[in-house]
Structure formats: structure tokens, C-alpha cells
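Q: Here's a chain of 225 amino acids. Please give me its 3D structure as C-alpha cells.
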Amino acid sequence: MGLAETLENSAYRVGGALIRPRMAFEIMKREGAGPVLPLVLAALAHFSVGTSAFWAFLRAVPEPFRNFVPVLSSALYADFIAGGFCALAALALILVLTLLVHATVGLMGGSGEFEDCLSTLAYANAPFALVALSLLAGVYLPGAGFLGALGLTLLTGALSFLWGLWVAVVGVSVAYEVSTGKALIALLLVPLAVVMAVAVLGVWGIVLVVVLYLAAYVLRHRGVV
């Protein structure tokens, strides 16, 4: 396969996953498409968010105060560092969420491959590139102002989250052959409950979650639930 054909196939997969996810994920599941492309796409999306957020923050700092912060005044590689940090943090969160969703859907009776879930959640992060565009608009468009840029960023952030959630719900339902309701529970409600448990109990919250999942796994395989 030549470079042009590879790029065309990659663009088709990305467009399909974001616009017609059910059909796209069914095709990718049959073909055994790996998670490399969506992970790279997610990393690039969050890298752009990090770099754009750095420049938006730099522009918001009053001019007299920039000289007191050398990294801000020079901005030497600081935007790339911010972008790299956001990309790595996003990939780590995608991996953790994939582990949680894979375990949850399995307990709900779903059956699927971990790599398919990882690909799905990575594709679901691609819409966050819109946040980078809104941040850049706030930096470079004349007359945008701080409040205008903030409002645009919040709006695109909400739209990106809803778009990504839709892609993720459809993708998980295809990957594990479960209903969209179960996929939504695994993607949204269970992670929220885990975050609340960890926020309230700290490390013991993590221990509690692990114990509950192990207990549910044992009970399910013994036919109790």
C-alpha cells in the first residue's frame, strides 16, 4: 500500500468514526484495525489544545508582568512543553478509562477486545481539536476580548465533549455488542462514581473500587449475579 493510499484510508477512517461512527466501527472491527492511528490523532488534538492554551494564557498576562516570568517572556519551547504534557496526560486518561470501561462492560455481559475499546475512546478525543481552534481565535482575532474568547472556548468544549461522548457510546456498543444504554453507563455514570469515591476517600477509594470489581467478577463467574 502506497503512502497516498495509506493517507486516504486513514482520512476515511477518521471521518467515518466522527461522522458515521456505527458503520465505521463495524468495518474497523471486522478488519481488525489497530489503535495506533486514533491514539496519534488524540495525542495531536490534545497537543494542539495545550499549545493553544499556553498562548491564550500568555496573551492574558498583562504586559508589565511578563518580564518577571522568563519562561513567559521568552516562550522558548514552553508551548511545546505544555502541548506535550496535555498529550501525555490525555493518553494516560484514555488508557485508564479504557481499563475501566472494559471491566465494566464485561460485568454487564458484553464481550469485546480491549484494543477496540482503546481505539474508540481515542477517536472520541479527536473533537477536542475544536477547543484549540477557539483558543487560537481568542488569541489572534482582533476585538475578541477575554470574555469572548472564554465563552467561545466553553462552548466548543461542551460541543466537543458531547460529540466525543456520542462517538464513544456508539463505538463501545459496537465493540462489545451491548446496548447504547449500557455503553453510556460504562462511559459516564461508572467513571463519575469512581471519581467521587476517590475524591472522598482518597487512596481508600481506589482500594474500594478494585475490591468491588473483583467481587463482582468472582460472583459473576460463579453464576451468582
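Q: Can you summarize the key feature?
A: The chain has one domain: 3-178.
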